[in-house]
Amino acid sequence: MSSSLDWMVPLIPEELVILTALAALVLDLSILRRKTVAVRAAVIGTMASLGCLVAMLCIACWHDYRTSEMLALTPLTQFLKMVLLALTLVVAVLSFGARFSRHVGEYFALLLLAAAGLMLLISSENLLVIFIALELLSVPLYVLTAFNKTSLPSAEAALKYFLFGSVAAAFTLFGISLLYGLTGGLQLGAIAEKLATQPIEPVCYAALVMTLVGFAFKVAVAPFHFWAPDVYEGAPAPIACFVASGSKVASFFVLARIIVVGFAPLHGSAAWEGFRAGWMPLLAVLAVLSMVVGNIAALVQTSVKRLLAYSAIAHDGYALLAFFGNPRQMLPALFFYVITYSLTVLGAFAVVAVVENSGGRDRLADWAGLGRRAPLLSACMFVFMLSLAGIPPLSGFFGKFYLFTAAAAGAPHLAMLWLVIVAVAASAISLYYYLQVLKQIYTTDPLPGSTPFRPPHAALVSIALLAGFVIAFGCAPGWLLGKLSIVLNSSGFQL
Amino acid sequence: MNMFPLLTLLTLIPLLGGVAALLASGQTNLSRRIAFVASLLALAGAALLWTEFDTSRAGWQFVECLAWVPSLGIDYHLGIDGLGLLMVLLSALIVPFAMLASWNIGPNPKLYFALILFLEAGLFGTFTALNFFHWFIYWELGLIPAFFLIKIWGGPRRTRAANQFFIYTLAGSVAMLLAFLALYAATGLFDFSQLADLARKGGLENALFARLGGSFFKSKETLATVIFLGVFLGFAVKAPLMPFHTWLPSAYAEAPTGTSMLLTGAMSKMGVYGFLRILLPLFPGQMRAMQTPLLWLAVVTIVFSAAAALAQRDLKRMVAYSSINHIGYCLLGIFAVVQLTGPTAAWTTEKAAALNGVMLQMFNHGLTASALFYFVGLIEQRGGGLRGLNDFGGLCKAAPVFCGLMGITLFASLGLPGLNGFVSEFLIFKGSLPLVGWAAAVSTLGLLITAIFLLTILQRVFSGPLQNRWTGWKDLTTGERLTLAPVIALMFVLGICPQILISVSNPAALAILNHF
Amino acid sequence: MLAWTIYISFLGAAVLVLLPPENRRAARITALLTALAGLAVALGGAVQYERHAPSGAPADLVNVSWIADLGIRFHLAADGISITLVLLTGIAAVAGVLFSWNIERRTREFFALYLALIGGVYGVFLSFDLFLLFVFYEIAIIPKYFLIASWGSTRREYGAMKLALYSLVGSAMVLVGLIAAYVVSGSQTFDLIELAKFPFPPAFQHWAFLLVFVGFAVLAGLWPFHTWAPTGHVAAPTAASMLLAGVVMKLGAYGALRVAMTLFPDGLRFWQNEIALLAVIGIVYGDTLALGQRDLQFIIGYSSVSHMGFVLLGLMTLTQIGLSGAVLQMFSHGIVAGLLFAVVGRMIYDRTHTRELSELQPMNLSVLAPFAAVTFVLAGAASMGLPGFSGFIAELQVLVGAWAVFPRLTIFAGVGILVGIAFMVRVWIKAFFAENDAKSAAIQIEPVTIPERAGAFLLLGATILIGLWPGLLLDLITPTLRSPLFQPLWKGGLP
């Protein structure tokens, strides 16, 4: 009894979030029942934001790190939880102006529950707990994707998401059970030890592949990406933000944890002329596919959201390059990239959300002349697009640079340079479609009859803040890198 | 050694004068006057140079030498000897003459006079420079003004003529530039005297081969010959030597009168000057080796151009071809001189005679040819644009002074004793006949044909019945007479007292011969 | 002190963005003052350098640690070659502002982008840390795109995108090379001088040199990667094409010299003959194609390719005089090309709205626009390499260097010069001095404005000054070529 209560204390942030979710539901169903959607959204949204903020403060103040069989709380996980909560906070703020649903309370509750799922996801080294958290994250997201009842694409996207997700989850579960059968344990560390001592049978590879499938799906690397464009396009914009940013950070973290810690002995090699079976060649294939498919598909898009979706797929490909680096650089590179990427894409989707809310659609043609209609918003979009393209001195550039350098140094004699070359080439091509968006914003004249519009203040402030972070992390990445090194070191590089 | 930078000043006068003429706002008269005054100043400067020149001393005088770009071996090195002095004086004489001839030119006379002055600056610079770098700057400086002079104020086919002139000359210049750059790459020298010293000892070929030879050029001689041909091409186009002459007839014919005078009077001398100053001292061996083909070219130039002149019906073209012919004599003299026939004094006299003749011919032909163009210009003016050989006749009755003065000029060009042309042609033949007998013999054919066509001009234009349309033909005005007076006088003076010029040219000729 | 050129430019750009959009006068004056300040600093810095560092070695301007994890430093330094190009940038910047005085549409954005581009270019010339150099190199790409796409003329979006993508692909190649060099050297530093001392293995150098050199040379217009240049120049507005031909192409050549040739001298020697051949092909090709063009700006664009061929030929001679000529040609061509584009774009096109030779021919421009005609004649003479202008000395040095090493190619280069003369004469005649007596009075052409005259005098003055006193620049360049940084290039070659 004492042990489980013992554990309630370090998990206060998660509990807070869940409580806030429930409170939001209750509040909405009782007191605010008769108010307008706008008021309800404002009140409950504020509550949700406050909840996230308080949770962040708790994490910042509480330095109780411990590891047990089910849960592992290290400085790294706490830091990442802060980031995730910040992302959720921004999404909540963006949802203030949401017009797509009357079910405000449910909306925020589901959002917070998904956030809780995120936080749980990164808190554990136990495969079963990871799976549970994955579902806790996914189910609310499926629902949230369908939240716009008036939109057919929304429903279609949710259905696709659900079907793909369930199948992927099934694969993962199967893989986990195989692993359990092989090694007799569910703890990643224990699994690694067992795999190291046992002779490697083909079943191990099967387990590896299956387990990977679920997470590859969650992260949206090709060829498991088919849900992403539809979801990003169909889901309500704040939810797309959330999926693109928070969900991605957590999923990458878990992926890294599982692969690097759990499957450590099975790494194999993807070096040029030094090919050995394992997760490295597998990830190399996934990376190349993602980069190629993502970039080429993005070239022909006319919808900004779909363009961002395919670009997200490409970026997942770049992120996977971190896995080929040497251990000392691999994790900082991966986390730097994923964190700054999530900030950038959150900002980009937020801009899309604001533009949509003010009456525009997300066709490229409707963005014409935005530069003069909403200067500050467009300037932020300018920053986000160029950061995604990898133009210095923005964070996207440094993130990619660090990834490429880490990957190139990963194998002796520049054996991994082939992958870096593919990545650099793909990144170079990507400038084309980002410039298409910017071209519409800045060089094309506005459509006749369009007027300047003022985005809602809260949204504008958060977007500007995000842009500021993107620039800051690009010009002075040392701060973030330093922070990451500290938390990684004090976590003993255990994930 | 004269500390006063007379030569630089001399070159600056027309340059500044040209700028001043351009800036003189509005009135044409003012800029014309400014330009003329500038040209007279330049003439005064040249005359000063003449008086200060010490004919007893060999070597360069009025030397100025400043380091300019030391890392590239480029110095601002000026100096003149007898040859340079003659050329400077010639240019200084022709320019005011040409200006007076074009006094009423239009449109845009301001630009016209300014361009002429820039051309004069280029001429002065070329004749006084002793370092390839700024010599080449001045050499090219003359091109653009000449191009525009032909293009803007020329006759009906001026565009083509200007184009041809520009591109041909530049092509030659590019070849010359490349060759000189090769020389620099091999020796690190841009200075003419230093290069000549090196060549005298035979070091030039060695240096070329040592640095540039090997991969492509297998033998010393081939490499040296290729470089020689590059430099040769530049001068051969300018002089011109057949078959590189094709630009000249159109250019001279289409150019306005004053420009033709300048082109034939001074600019064509740049080519011959190049042969004497640069080609001969730097590549004596190559010239010796190629003497026979070169002589053939000179002979062809002399004879064919004379024959071509005979076949023309346009007076201006006749004079143009006659120009080529006269320059041919200069080249004959130069090519004859490279004959190495032993160290005996006798041959030195012959060679000296030939070279003196060449230099005198340069001066004299400058005078007579420009005077001829002036007369043709006058004919064209009075004839309402006509200048065909057969368009006129009997003008002697209407304009006796005109006939007389033009006759004198024609005879001077022909080489009548007592006039300047005779002395120079005589000296050339005196020198070359013993040296290269066959060539000189064939060239006398040129003399004969020249006589024929010049007399034909005299006969067709001046004698015979006077056509009705020319009954109002005006004789030379006072202004025109005043313009012509100095030139005609010089023709007589130099014919009777050639010593004036020879005293200056002989030391220079001997100095050049020292390279053999 | 020279570092202030960078800061001032970006500061000026920032100030411009904050100005009210309607006040064009303020925008123009701000831009002019900024550019003049940059030029003044450049001149001051040049004088200072000559006095304090006569040995020609690089003089440090700023050298602080930036991203310690990767050994990246914010290292700005200048040697004679950098200063020559910084001076070029300063002059070109001022001239460009003067020639864009008449921009009416979105003036402050134009000048802001322009100054940002200038700042980036200054940065490239002054960076001695490879990462920093790359950052500035890429920063320069985006303003270029927008300048052309928004204010350009013929097919501007296509031209802009082509330019941006070529630049990015080129820089992608450079990035791969840089990362590879960093990894192979294992020295955890990106400092140019340090890396130059590292003995890279010859096999590595062979391909790394080619990659980095070609990556930079794309922007320098190396044949056959030059195809962006004619379209880009034609599409760009006057000031942008002045900068493009004048300065941006020099970025590529400078990068090739500073990075590829300095780091990988053995690789350079391996590819010396092939690249020299490509350079000479470029010389002849550029001039020959210029001979047949009908659009005046295409003619000059192609002639730029030819002039850059001289630069590359000079670089490949591996002699001090050849390299000196190459650097001087970079300066000279920058000025002359800027002048040519200024006359064609600003003085002619803005008034007659055509650049087709056949349409200009009947206009009798020598009478209607005498200032333009004279300026163009002088600029054309400079472009031909007529003595008295800066191009002559530069071509002289390149040819001397080339004679010693590539005698056959030198003769072809001479042919190229001849063709260059021919097309320029053709342009003179057709565009300005064609004779037509009829209807020339029908067209009214506004007189040349004072800013245009000022710009023309500035550029003409610069080229004539250096043409007659090349020592001014050679005193900077020659000691630098003798400094230790360039020693490996002369190994076994001619002085």
Helix content of chain C: over 70%
The poorly predicted ranges of chain A are none
How would you name the oligomeric state of the polypeptide chains in this document?
A: heterotrimer
**Largest Cβ-defined interface:** B-C, 37 and 36 residues
Q: Give start-end ranges of low-pLDDT stretches of chain C.
A: none
Taking all residues together, what is the mean pLDDT of chain C? 86
What fraction, in percent, of the residue positions of chain A are helical? over 70%
The span between the termini of chain C is: 33 Å
Q: How would a textbook summarize the main sheet of chain C?
A: 2 strands, antiparallel
Q: Estimate what percentage of residues of chain C fall within beta strands.
A: under 5%
Summing up helix and strand content along with how strands pair, one would put the structural category of chain A as: mainly alpha
Radius of gyration of chain C: 21 Å
* Inertia-based shape of chain C: globular
Number of strands of chain A: 4
Task: Explain what this protein looks like in three dimensions.
The complex is a heterotrimer of chains A (495), B (516) and C (495). Chain A has 20 helices and four strands. The relative contact order of chain A is 0.09. By secondary structure, chain A is mainly α. Chain A has helices spanning 2-8, 12-29, 37-61, 75-94, 104-121, 127-145, 152-183, 188-197, 202-219, 227-234, 237-262, 279-299, 304-320, 327-357, 370-373, 375-389, 395-410, 417-442, 457-475, 478-490, and strands spanning 66-67, 72-73, 269-271, 274-276. Chain B has 22 helices and two strands. Chain B is mainly alpha-helical. A two-stranded antiparallel sheet of chain B has the order 1-2. In chain C, helix 4 packs antiparallel against helix 5 (130-139), helix 14 (320-352) runs antiparallel to helix 20 and helix 18 runs antiparallel to helix 19 (407-432). The radius of gyration of chain C is 21 Å and the shape is globular. Chains in contact: A-C, B-C. The B-C interface holds B 68-72, 133, 136-137, 139-141, 143-144, 147-148, 151-152, 159, 162-163, 166-167, 170-171, 174-175, 177-178, 181-182, 184-185, 211-212, 215-217 and C 321, 366, 377, 381, 384, 386-388, 392-393, 396-397, 399-401, 403-404, 407-408, 410-411, 414, 417-418, 421-422, 425, 429, 433, 435, 469-471, 474-475, 478.
